[in-house]
Design goal:
The protein has helices at residues 2-30, 67-91, 93-120. The chain is mainly alpha-helical. The protein has a domain at 67-120. 0% of the residues are buried. The mean pLDDT is 80.
Length: 127
Amino acid sequence: MAIVEYLSIGILFTLGLLVVGGFFVLNRLIAPKTKQLVGPDGQPLGTFIAYECGEIPIGDAHQRFSFQYYVFALVFVLFDVITAFLIIWSVGAKIMLRSGLITITSFLVITLLGLGYWWKKQALRWM
């Protein structure tokens, strides 16, 4: 009786392996064969290079990014979360009434204080 219960799982697992294996074989059969890539200096690049939209990469892949990119990413995530909270609050505004209005006002004041601090420190200025 226990084998019958696991039969469907075994069939699904086997079918999954066949599909994945079939895709690998199909890829080997119909994929275009690539030529050896040659760099600007005429040396072969090998197979372990970064794929950059079909272009031959120039320079080192390990470059430092400006900290400003991370600040903008953080600001984006912060305002994304704020927007989510505001949407949830606007949907439930009829139920919350006065206490909800006080809560959302304090939330927005704290958020605007943080934005004002960033603005004063010029952390949002691009380069």
